[in-house]
Amino acid sequence: MYPGIWAQHTPDKAAAIHAVSGETLSYRMLDDRSNQLAQLFWSQGLRPGDHVAIFMENNLRYFEVIWAALRSGLYLTTINRYLTGEEAGYILDNCDARALIASHYLAEPAAALPGLAPRCHTRLMTDGSAPGYESYENAIARHPAQPLAEQPAGQFMLYSSGTTGRPKGILRPLSGANIADDLGPVAKLQKALWKVTQDSVYLSPAPLYHSAPLSFCTGIQSHGGTVVMMPRFDERAALEAIARHRVTHSQWVPTMFTRMLKMPAQDRAGLDLSSHQVAVHAAAPCPEGIKRQMFDWWGPILYEYYGGTELNGLTHCSPEEWLAHPGTVGKPILGKLHICAEDGRELPVGEDGIVYFELPKMSFEYYHDAAKTRSAQHPEHANWSALGDVGHVDAEGYL
Fold this sequence. Notes:
single chain, 399 residues, alpha/beta, 9-stranded mixed beta sheet, 6-stranded parallel beta sheet, 32% helix
């Protein structure tokens, strides 16, 4: 499913709401504008498999760009809004983007990008314009709000910087499906693990350029639910948004839990959080004490997963599983786990080592960098890959 379906069934429903301004993007608006941008991409010669990029703060226009790319068979790269012009320019050029959508909010760093990525021939800017950019609103207004004749499903190509060297693009193959038939892996997980439906309301407190918020928001909209997008994380505002919008699902990182727990008791009280059914967290290890305090406060609604943008494997842990295995990030639901020494030897239960996932074949490659791709693979098994994390499994197979 995708916004084109929901624009027919629930055209006036909010696909996304700005948590601070209250601005709403309806499914009809999302469908129309993403169609117009998809038509613009086509008119500029972009075809399935080509690359586009977005450089923007958390902005409702973000969703229009996402779906324009996904319904055109394009690869979309999101660029960290906090990067300098030079850093953003490297990613824009490296990902081979032929089109860029930026925002006037980031006009200063965006000013450097045309000179750093000369092959990117189409540059649009929302909420105002700047030298080297055409007004996004004026540009898409020249195109019809009609779907392309064919709408193959696109894909994200996001960058992961790690700890050293230049960021690396994570390329996964296009599915080959039509966008109307391609629910996508995250949306499927949302339905299977966390019971996401058309009635779900999802709070997104994190930057949209990150893989998890981007994928979760897109998944919610695939199901016809509503995304409540925070422009930036604020502990009190997050709780108020849950209460005001009757949020059912959310996703967090452990530092957000820590900040909320540090709030004075009176600031945490008095808000109706009863609609909140599922709070997912990931991205970093959560201290056991912090998670226990969150259970005491929110009840048994905390779900955890471990995985990377590469989607080379995934573990998942329900509230009940974590309480029975404190500190775990769950059992694998994608890939087979192997804990290995640095030389590749597989280690016994309980011993710490590098976390590898085994899949039938390598699920990704690092764009334009065969050496980095090879470095993520096991020395002897090309279909085992690791992100560099260290862990162990217990006797029951929990990581």
